[in-house]
Amino acid sequence: MQSIPVQESFAVPTDALSYNAQGWAKGYQSQKDEYDYWIDDVEGQIPVELSGTLFRNGPGLLDVNGEKIHHPFDGDGMISAIAFSDGRAHYRNRFVRTQAFVEEQAAGKILYRGVFGTQKPGGVLNNAFDLRKKNIANTQVIYWGGKLLALWEAAEPHRLDPYTLETLGLDYLDGVLDEGDAFAAHPRIDPSSKDGTPHLVNFSIKPGLSSTITIYELDINGKVVEQHAHSVPGFAFIHDFAITPNYCIFFQNPVSINPLPYVLGLRGAAECIEFHPEQSTKIIVIPRNNTVLPKGGKSGVQMLETKSGFVFHHANAFEQDGQIYIDSICYQSFPEVEPNSDFREVKFDAISPGQLWRFTVNLENETVERQQLENRCCEFPFVHPSHMGRPYRYVFMGAAHNNTGNAPLQAILKADLETEERQLWSAAPEGFVSEPVFVPRADASAEDDGWVLTVVYDSSRHRSDVVILDGRDLNQGAVARLHLKHHVPYGLHGSWAQESFVKI
């Protein structure tokens, strides 16, 4: 594909670093306070038509009473809710009161090991053979079927009050989940499932020498209406998946795990994962509702192979002309977690960047083709919700400011996959962005007619802003910049609810 020039909002030389490493690291300081206030410091104007609630989830505590956790993915989940109504916005945040969070806050110290390397004080002897799972509820938050659920992919959801963010307890989907069952943190919403209504589609993984993938579909009332499990060979380390009207698609990254150092208290479970670049990545295609594959394909699960790489997140997938297209953020290798490393001292230039690739799957011929769609370092892709699982034109992503190399996400990139045009809004050099969330304008006819919402950490002020961009033209700059009274540590995922959950 040809390279299209990008109009950038900030004049930072492209041959120089666009960020200060110390400034970036400050965004990983804990936010121990909980707030509840109307946002009155606003640059620009909040669109009156923007009505609903932006929910965000991510690690709010990066230490427990001064004891640092080893990796942000081990941090306790903190929900932020920004409710919009009549041109105003209200901010609230609360920690998810998981059992482990309550216990550790009462004890004033770390009591649980973390998946990504956090250890209890006391050395190896105090960590060996302690295999308890700490449900940290820190990855995604979504409002569905009248419930607000905080998700962490290795355990049950926590249900929250959407107005107050009070933790109401574990949610077992009306008895579908058993105690300790997983419910992944990357649900997809099919805008029109086989019965013509939206479905929330999600999965769980039970890894091992062979792995079990269970797929769940929930109707608009939150009732599980489809559930089927499939065994696939090998260890499956899968964070995200993609859907089309007929399929669920998973990328089984070429990794293995040696659990012995974890069992012996020497490492966290994720530190025991090894990437194998000599092996292929497997694409697992599972029919939804036990349908039969089109054009003479076989029924049931199909596994195809493609060049080695590592995928955390998928942008979208769709079926067209007898083929399946999957657009994904792909890395050359798994960014391994080192036991003695400090996540605040990342050497970005030593790590390969995530980039957007398209995988074209032909189930009848059992072939996979790859094409790079975006060279710039990017992550957290988001598409128009009505185009989930369908052909689409635009994808919004967090991106590096410079068009080459690896760096923190400081910009929002809009990629037009038809014309190959790009738009970039950048918060560099002092700002660092979160995942963009696209909110369509009511009765919009164009796919990009809506707003892009992102939380930006301003390292110069040690505060965060909620930034509203016009999805049709990022180059015009922010429509509004809502200045919060504090910082929000770098988060993971978020979602939009049509209801404005604030009591006026």
From TrEMBL:
Keywords carried by this UniProt record: Iron, Metal-binding, Monooxygenase, Oxidoreductase
Molecular functions per Gene Ontology: carotenoid dioxygenase activity; metal ion binding; monooxygenase activity
SUPFAM superfamilies referenced in this protein's UniProt entry, alphabetically: C-terminal (heme d1) domain of cytochrome cd1-nitrite reductase (SSF51004)
InterPro entries: Carotenoid_Oase, Haem_d1_sf
UniProt: Fe cation binding residues: H186, H239, H313, H493
Enzyme class label: oxidoreductase
Cofactor remark from the record: Binds 1 Fe(2+) ion per subunit.
Requisite cofactors: Fe(2+)
Keyword Metal-binding applies: yes
Top-level taxon of origin: Bacteria
Protein name as it appears in the record: Beta-carotene 15,15'-monooxygenase
Lineage: Bacteria, Bacillati, Cyanobacteriota, Cyanophyceae, Gomontiellales
